[in-house]
What does this fold into?
Amino acid sequence: MHRRQFIGLVGGSTAAVLAGCVGDSETGGDAAILDETLTLTTTTSTYDTGLLGEVNGAFTDRFGAEVDAVAQGTGAALETARRGDSDVVMVHARGLEDEFMREGYGVNRRDLMFNDFVVVGPDDDPAGIDGMNEVTDAFAAIADAEAIFVSRGDNSGTHNKELNIWEAAGIEPSGEWYREAGSGMGEVLNQADLEEGAHTLADRGTFISQRSELESLAIRVQGPIEGGPELLANPYGVIAVNPAVHDNVNYDLAMAYIGFITSRDGQELIREYTVEGEQLFFPEAVAEIPNFQQYVPEDWKPET
It folds into this structure.
């Protein structure tokens, strides 16, 4: 009963905040939130691609509030939020997001955007995976050939996806060929590029944004954006930290940020952001048919 009363109270507060803060660009009805700072923990991919600076700059320009963005792997970003050191999280590992919400640390999750993962590798293709249709077959070929694979190894969204693929392929990777970097996506791509015959799993956006600086890596297995397997889909979500758990968080500002980034204007920023003429992320928040499951863990069912 207490939980329902709380949700009703913050729901009314949020509506008031969003009504006053998320203005319509066509009417110029914006309201400033002065002298406040939002702490956002997010994935390295949103930072490495440059998208984060674009979106956060637009939010600051419109409302006057600064965004202190901390780029971490998804696991680390959610852990920072668990400690109450973040107001809002933007991540891409639905399983970890659901766990975060089930534990009560997050509220008002929204689908935000998506891209996909790709398997990249060198020109000589030592594992013979170029053009494979199934990523599990590609991972099996890499393991059979003991071709070097550089793993994020950092409990990030990309690392969790990689582990899911190994599991689906029925393989537990180990040995000298399997190297855990414990680093962000940009650093892992650079490391794989320097290693002779190395492969890695990357989100398409980060790979495209750094492709011009890489000498030997190219996409060997495509994700669903280019007709590849759905297993390589990469959806992103944005979640406010629950003020009932951490009363120090700036919940109203977090909801203003979520309101902006999932609005028509925010989604258009995401849609229009390109590198070398290629779209890196695809907006997903605005839909003609509302998807209730975006707000709660995917396996959530109401109590009967």
